[in-house]
Design goal:
The chain is mostly helical. It has 20 helices and eleven strands. Bound molecules: glutamic acid and zinc ion (ZN).
């Protein structure tokens, strides 16, 4: 997106490349993207890859691939660059070291020599005594002698930020006014003993340097906001930041059993939706509804409609429920909205290996194009296409034994024999004529159409459910259809 001249909104999307992209992350990206689009602002894409142990290049590639698949665009970021490059934190380490040094020099931060055991012991004691259990300020004002002794013991310090002794209040764009008292926001580490800067430092430092005006992110990060506000104040004093951005915390997403959807839950994996054949526009439409809505009576919308209407103030602070059924229903609606050519093209991945069980030379484009409109009105996700059309491209139908048992009852052989006769005499250029043939066969055996067509469907497609039967038969053709009815009769006779 091009930023409009004069637009001052700058937002960021700043994932860490750890593991597979998940739906919570996509929702955050979506709301930032929509906010930027709505305000003709700038979206900064930043990679928070300072955790060498957890970050991987593979995750980074996946992340980029996923964001592109979803159709997001951004104005500044790795690979495209921008005025605040580089946009990968692993390439900005000198900057963070410099800021940490300035914070130490100005007294906004100090070296903390406490060992993990000491911290744990004091925390447990504070808990037992009913006192706040966060860091107790032990190293805030060490004397030179104490520092010398710690050094002599071979301790290497972390850098800790000194929280001001004051209540912090801010107006969250989603949740309204929020207040944090000092005892709930203890001094926090910003640089590890090995010199590695932490999220607590690099995230607000980059937001400051990249001139971010609005921080929209998940509610799980709410507890870091008062710290960041304090850090911003210090950075502003040092001339590194120009004030504090606005913050808006997006509601939690709840999964099964009303538990917070975690990135470890399989249903939170973006790849799952992609592989099942969600359309990006269907998935984004659904994810928009996790905390936001276009209007009370319109669930289905395009991303253009969404971004035109998106207002962060309309985001609901209450937890949103992730409902797979609803996601599929919305995706189904988006499948219906495609033009048929687009639909046939988007199904392509599921019409070949590793999804398709037929050999490529048995695939028939004309048959596919003939059946596609019937499939388009029925699929919830594109991956369902494979099973729905395999009868057209496999030399023999893939018979589902449960379907066979269900459909092939006593008398099915007699019915199939009559149906074969009537079908053989029918007009194969008309699905209606094929229907009449099966209807007549049913009547001859005292069966309604539904009961009469079940054995025919299983004989020809291998399953009890599928696309409209008579259109399916017409597209498969007379010769193959009759041969399959014969094969079923032979199996029944055996
Ligand atoms: N890298 C952080 C994360 O993925 C970003 C958090 C934020 O938006 O401040 O959780
Ligand atoms: Zn300490």
């Amino acid at each position: 997106m091009a930023s409009a001249p004069g637009s001052s909104v700058r937002v960021r999307f700043c994932p860490s490349p750890t593991g597979n992209p998940h739906v919570g992350l996509v929702r955050t990206a979506l709301f930032n993207w929509a906010f930027a689009k709505h305000h003709q602002g700038t979206l900064v894409f930043r990679i928070e890859d300072t955790d060498a142990a957890r970050d991987s290049e593979e995750s980074y590639d996946q992340l980029l691939d996923s964001l592109r698949w979803l159709g997001f665009d951004w104005d500044e970021g790795p690979e495209i660059g921008g005025p605040h490059a580089p946009y990968r934190q692993s390439q900005r380490m000198d900057l963070y070291a410099d800021v940490a040094r300035k914070l130490l020099d100005a007294g906004h931060a100090y070296h903390c020599y406490c060992s993990q055991e000491e911290l744990d012991t004091r925390r447990d004691a504070a808990r037992a005594a009913g006192r706040p259990s966060g860091y107790d300020g032990h190293c805030r004002d060490l004397t030179e002698a104490q520092v010398a002794e710690y050094k002599a013991q071979g301790r290497t310090p972390i850098v800790r930020f000194r929280m001001p002794d004051e209540t912090i209040t801010f107006t969250d764009l989603v949740r309204g006014e929020l207040t944090f008292t000092p005892e709930n926001v203890p001094d926090f580490g910003i640089v590890r003993a090995n010199g590695a800067p932490l999220y607590t430092l690099v995230n607000p430092v980059d937001d400051a340097l990249m001139e971010i005006t609005h921080v929209l992110r998940g509610e799980d990060l709410l507890s870091s906001t008062p710290r960041q506000i304090a850090l911003y104040k210090a950075l502003t004093e040092l001339g590194i930041a120009q004030g504090t951005p606005h913050f808006g915390h997006l509601p939690y997403v709840m999964g099964e059993g009303n538990k917070k959807l975690s990135k470890r839950d399989p249903e939170s994996s973006l790849n799952l939706y992609r592989e099942r054949g969600f359309l990006p526009e269907g998935l984004l439409n659904y994810l928009s509804l996790l905390g936001w809505s276009l209007s009370a009576d319109q669930d289905i919308f395009t991303m253009d409609e969404m971004t035109a209407a998106f207002d962060i103030a309309d985001v609901n602070p209450n937890p949103a429920r992730f409902d797979l059924k609803k996601a599929e229903a919305i995706n189904a609606d988006h499948i219906r909205l495609l033009d048929v050519k687009d639909f046939t093209e988007r199904c392509a991945p599921w019409l070949k290996a590793p999804y398709a069980p037929w050999s490529p030379q048995d695939f028939d484009q004309a048959r596919w194009e003939a059946i596609a409109p019937h499939a388009q009105t029925r699929l919830k996700v594109l991956s369902e296409i494979t099973d729905n059309v395999d009868f057209l491209f496999l030399p023999e139908p893939a018979v589902d034994e449960a379907s066979w048992t269900k459909a092939m009852k006593e008398g099915s052989d007699a019915l199939l024999t009559t149906a074969r006769e009537k079908l053989a005499a029918a007009d194969w250029t008309s699905a209606e004529s094929l229907k009449e043939a099966v209807l007549a066969a049913g009547e001859a055996h005292g069966l309604k159409l539904g009961k009469a067509q079940a054995p025919v469907r299983v004989a020809v497609t291998g399953r009890t459910v599928g696309l409209p039967l008579f259109e399916s038969l017409e597209i498969l053709g007379k010769e193959k259809t009759l041969a399959r009815v014969d094969a079923a009769l032979a199996r029944l006779a055996a």
